Amino acid sequence: MPVETVKRSTNNRTVHLWLGCTTRAFLQDSAKNLFRLLDKFKIDFEIIDDIDVCCGSVLFVTGQKYAAMDNLKQVEKVLRKKNVKHLTSICPGCTRTFKFFYEPRRSNSVKKVEHYTETLLANLEEVSFKNTDRVYKATYHDPCHLARHMGITEPPREIIKALPGVEFIELTTNRQDAFCCGSGGGMRSYDKELADNASLLRLQEADELGVDILLTSCPFCERSFKMAQELPEAPKGLKVLNIVDFLPRFL
Predict the structure, then answer these.
(1) Secondary structure class of 148 (helix, strand, coil)
(2) What CATH number has the domain spanning 128-250?
(3) Cα angle vertex 143, ends 138, 145, to 5°?
(4) What is the sign of the dihedral through the CA atoms of 40, 30, 181 and 114?
């Protein structure tokens, strides 16, 4: 991946960062922003960047059991080699896969799996956010893998609410009951029209709130919304951002 690799000194407290396929391929600025945030939050981290293999999320959710297990074993070799104990990811799909399929196994070293919002929130006292002299009206979309599947709903909200000058407004459907972006489980590849329609409904819901920014914490959701924004009936003027790309404005 042609992004600047950052490696801080490895010790027993090191957080190992798994970026995921979508971020590596399409959202490299988000990766750079996360590197910067982890550094600002004084988190020792190392990137797992010496393996060109997916976490296997799509293989698991589409029922390809044997291919998924073969993939898992390849990833486990790297986890053992790096002695990964604490793993964090920018991708909720990757986070879920590592938490449910890797962490319980004794054949790797992983003891703790987090989404990056959990990792940042644990070190929130290490940073001081700057006032930007601007008021942002923002809402937050809960990714399905994060909220429905793992119950992780508050860390993203706590981070957003800690930012000066941000007026936070909840979407009508939120947390475990949030409406899907339309791209999970391979849906966008299977039925692009259905995925676009789901994303469009979510964009319209956010637009009706009168917010400036629709935040999320999932690369899949972000890309799905931005693709739907290209439709002629999509609301105009609404900015879609991952939290990881919003936070640097306040540092």
Answers:
(1) coil
(2) 3.40.50.1860
(3) 160
(4) negative
Determine the Cα–Cα distance for residues 193 and 208; give it in Å rounded to an integer.
Answer: 22
d(CA 223, CA 176) in angstroms, rounded, equals 21
Helix (H) / strand (E) containing 85: none
Residue type at position 153: T
234-246 mean pLDDT: 96
Give me the mean pLDDT over the 10-14 stretch.
60
What stretch(es) of the chain map to CATH 3.40.50.1860?
Answer: 128-250
- pLDDT number for residue 184: 79
Model confidence band, residue 9 (pLDDT cutoffs 50, 70, 90): very low
d(C-alpha 199, C-alpha 38), whole Å:
30
* Mean pLDDT value of segment 77-81: 91
pTM (2 d.p.) = 0.92
